[in-house]
Design brief:
By secondary structure, this protein is α+β, with helices and mostly antiparallel strands. It has helices at 3-10, 23-33, 53-63, 89-99, 118-144, and strands at residues 16-17, 37-40, 49-52, 103-108, 111-117. The chain has a 3-stranded mixed beta sheet. It has a two-stranded antiparallel ribbon with strand order 4-5. A hairpin with an 8-residue loop joins strand 2 and strand 3 (49-52). The longest helix has 27 residues, at 118-144. The radius of gyration is 18 Å and the shape is elongated. The structure holds adenosine monophosphate (AMP). Residues 36-37, 50-52, 54-55, 77, 80-81, 101-104 line the site of adenosine monophosphate.
């Protein structure tokens, strides 16, 4: 199963924010879209960073409420790990587990083509495993009968 299969189900919408947006406005964006992370982009689908609720929590704990009026660029992660649509879902699951992040932007020619969360990936993997289990069980039952 490929990441393109995940995107076919969930769509290719990616919520992006400009680097100079304030952290307060980022909170509003995350709440409005009911998401946990946004891609930082200067436009035209470029990936210039990623910022998640964890970055906000850490910054608030370290520097207090003053962070809310600061630009998103100050708390975002600039080295973003991305995947291509033909990436294997199991490999992306491993990537997320290994590096302890829950979001991965999907890019084609350095431009955003979607985003997957750990929830999207786990959902697809469960479906994949259910199909495999059912096929194996049918095979065994067929063999024995
Ligand atoms: P998350 O688990 O996605 O909320 O993110 C945990 C931490 O990893 C935060 O500091 C994020 O900015 C960072 N992060 C999230 N996704 C990625 C990614 N695809 N590449 C690099 N860092 C990421």
């Amino acid at each position: 199963m490929r990441i393109s299969d995940v995107l076919r189900d969930k769509g290719d919408l990616v919520v992006t924010v400009a680097p100079d947006l304030t952290v307060q406005d980022l909170l509003t964006t995350l709440a409005e879209h009911r998401i946990g992370a946004a891609v930082v982009s200067t436009g035209a689908g470029s990936v210039d960073g990623i910022v998640s609720e964890r970055d906000i929590v850490r910054a608030l704990a370290a520097r207090g409420a003053a962070v809310l009026t600061e630009p998103v660029a100050g708390i975002a992660t600039s080295h973003v790990r991305t995947v291509r649509p033909d990436a294997d879902v199991a490999d992306v699951e491993r990537l997320m587990t290994e590096h302890r992040f829950r979001h991965v932007p999907v890019v084609v020619n350095d431009r955003l083509a979607g985003i997957v969360s750990i929830g999207d990936v786990v959902k697809k993997r469960i479906t994949e495993l259910e199909v495999e289990t059912s096929a194996l069980s049918g095979y065994i039952t067929g063999e024995l009968s």
